[in-house]
Amino acid sequence: MRRTVPMVLTFCAGFIMVLDGFFNISFINGFANRYLMRSVTLSVAWAAGIGALNIVRLHVRNITTKRTNYQYSYILLGFFFFMLISGVVLERHTTNPFYQFVYSSFQAQLSAAVFSLSSFYLASSSYRAFRARSLEATLLLVAAVFVISGSVPMGAAIWSGFPTVSQWLMKYINDSTMRAFTIGSTMGTLSQCVRNLVGIERGHLRGSEGG
Amino acid sequence: MAGVNVPTAIVDALTPWSTTIGVICLIGVWSMLYKENPFYRACEHAYVGSAAAHTLVTTYANTIKPGIQMNMAQNGDYWEIIPILLGCLIYFQPIRQYNWISRFPMAFWVGYNAGYSLTLRVAMPLFTEARRTMLPFFVITDGRFDLMTSINNIVFTGVVVLVLVYFIFSRNVIQGKGVFLNRWARIAIMICFGAGFGNGVANRVSLLIGRFNYVLSDWLKLY
Lengths: 211, 223
Description:
The complex is a heterodimer of chains A (211) and B (223). Chain A is mostly helical and 211 residues long. Chain A has helices spanning 4-22, 26-47, 49-64, 71-89, 97-129, 135-151, 153-158, 161-198.
């Protein structure tokens, strides 16, 4: 019951999608498009709260047990409930002017600040990575220098060939290697999907006792 | 369900402070560059809390509410209760005694995505990518042999084949003179990583410039 039913559910849901993709059977196509896709969208949407629930549980526990730095949990829970309540209760939800103000002042700005912070770390990692210790490391350094110089106006001012070399590297070396990665990873994904469907791979059914 | 509204006067009074609040958040996050401090930790926690809430609000506004209001109440699609209940079973996950129930929605999603991937999402791009790799080695443009395009096509296809060989066949399989294939593949991969890294640096720097622009132009109005 605890493992067999989920495995049957996995197989049925996947098999219907495979039939829908490869065969022109009106009943299957209709069922997949009308019910199955909508079911996934709805069930995922209603399950979205599990992550938030886990965050709230963790931080409520931090506060009740007064763990180290538990004061920050008040800030997290405060922002969480303030934005959640204002987003759900207010008229027009995410497009409400007040919610827009809260979103653009806090969430959007914090997000942009956190992502821009990574450029400082990237600079420090460049310092460590760009050392010509071997042929491969030298090639990495040279390719990066050409691409960076080709993407900024100053590079083109130093040597007009930088943008051309940069574009060539991106188009013929970077794209081709990434294409090989894509083909390889896609083949891996396909085999993983088949293993999931036929029940060889059961990682998603772990996490509790019983069989 | 009619929602409540915050008076326009309050929103209008708060709006001019938006940029200042944004700059305070920026300073808080960037203060991490000096060392870990309470201001940064506060901003970090505010970010996690607001991001989690925003995800929930977006899901509610775009999927849950229209599903209940339009599909169920107006169109009478009451069958949607079944997937809703299935999705809600995931909430048994934190309850140790009953967390096996949370396998049901998980099994459904994994099965659906596996089936979908086998047909459209993954398999089709694979064929498209493979076909786009098969470029002509002898390109004739306007009745004349195009040397540069031919060399570029050979380089492109050669790199794809080399990298695929490198990943599919390990060193143990390719021995003797075949090892040089691995070396060329590694060279191509390192150039790719270098180019990708350079591109990443350029993108991140543009984000950084955007933040400086925000402080100097939007907040301080220097230009």
